[in-house]
Every structure is written in C-alpha cells, then in structure tokens.
Amino acid sequence: CALPIFETGVKEFGVITGNEIIKASDDRLAGYQNKLNQLGLKLKQSQIVSGNFTQSGAYRATLELFKKSPKIDGIFVLSDLMATGVLEALHELGKKVPKEVQVVSTDNSPTGLYTIPKLSSFDMKALESGRLAAEMLFDLMDGRPVRRVTLAPELVQRESTRNVRSEEHTSE
User: Fold this and answer.
1) Average pLDDT over residues 44-56
2) What are the beta bridge partners of residue 75?
3) What would you report as the CA-atom Rg of the chain, rounded to the nearest whole angstrom?
4) What is the β-pairing status of strands 74-77 and 48-50?
5) Containing H/E element for 154?
6) Residues in CB range of 121: below 8 A, 6 or more apart
7) Contact at 8 Å (CB) between 143 and 120?
8) Which pairs with CB-CB distance under 8 Å and at least 24 residues apart come from 62-70?
9) Using an 8 Å Cβ cutoff, are 156 and 104 in contact?
10) Per residue in 135-151, pLDDT tens?
C-alpha cells in the first residue's frame, strides 16, 4: 500500500477537498475513496470538507472537520497549498503532527519543504504529464494514432506522516 497512513494505524480519516468546479478535485477524492473501499474502510460524508483550494479555506475546513469528527487522526488534503492551512489549524488545535494526526497531500510542490513539519505529498508528475501531452499533440499533428497514458502518482514521504519502517520517527 503506497499511502503510509493506511499502514500506521489511522482509525478516523478526514479529507479536505478543493471544490466541485475543478475536475481534479473530484478525481482525487474518487481515487482516495476507491483506495479506502479496497481496504474495507468507509469515509462518511461528515469527514469530507471543502477547502476551496485556498489556505484560509482549508484552515476553516479543518476546524469544521474536527467539530464534526473530533477523533480524526489522518487527513488527506487535495493540494499542498491547502495543507499549509490544515497544518496551521492543527497547530492551533494543539494536535501534534504526525503523532496525533497524520497529514498527506497532493502536488509535491516546493511548499511542502517549508512547512513544519515537512509535508508528505503525492507527486502528480506534472512535468512528465506535460511532456507526454506535447508528444501526443505532435503525434496527432503528424497523423499518428494518439495513445492513452496514465501516470501513477508517487508518494514523497516527509515528516507529516509516520514512517512505516521506523515508528520512532515522530516530528512534533
């Protein structure tokens, strides 16, 4: 399993989504829910809160999430920018990351290197996607058949999730 929070005993999951207008938000949420379903876990509607792809929105969403589900111990955030707001709210709530609440995000932007703790994030392979899109456009322009390509995201594990191999890794 590629997502460490599934391997480190998280019992209550929460999700901070973007918004329904942006398809990537729906796709990321669907992928997360599929993974939970594969593991026999369910995500309640009350455990999904929109952060509107903003830092302040995710901050408010995190506070709302903990009012609805105070036992949340793992949060999946649909962008690194929003994750900064999540980490700020968790700090304000007195929650230690990753000891009490683990946080994983998507994008693997440089932002995650400057948060405290450093953010675990899925690399969505944006550069590779762009290169492949350009290749496919040239193929199309040259009359060659266009292929369908799916790139699997890769987790870059940092300090906001517990290290599966070394449980003593707990940044506070």
Assistant:
1) 93
2) 14, 103
3) 17
4) unpaired
5) strand 154-156
6) 80, 83, 104, 105, 106, 107, 108, 109, 112, 155, 156, 158
7) no
8) 62/16, 62/86, 62/89, 62/90, 62/93, 63/89, 63/92, 63/93, 65/14, 65/16, 66/93, 69/12, 69/14, 69/44
9) no
10) 999 999 999 998 888 88
**Which tokens go with 1?**
């399993």
**Residue 15: strand, helix, or coil:** strand
Is the pLDDT at 63 greater than 90? The verdict is yes
Q: Give pLDDT tens digits for 159-170.
A: 999 875 544 444
Q: Report the sign of the C-alpha dihedral through residues 18, 113, 100, 93, in that order.
A: negative
Q: Judge whether 20 and 48 are in contact, CB under 8 Å.
A: no
Q: What SS3 state is found at 123?
A: strand
Q: How far is residue 8 CA from its own chain's centroid? A: 16
* 84 sits in which H/E element: helix 80-92
Helix (H) or strand (E) holding 103: strand 102-106
Say yes or no to pLDDT of 129 above 60. yes
Q: How far is CA 136 from CA 39, 141, 151, 169, in A?
A: 35, 9, 14, 43
Q: What is the pLDDT of residue 149?
A: 84
Per-residue tokens: 81: 């920018």
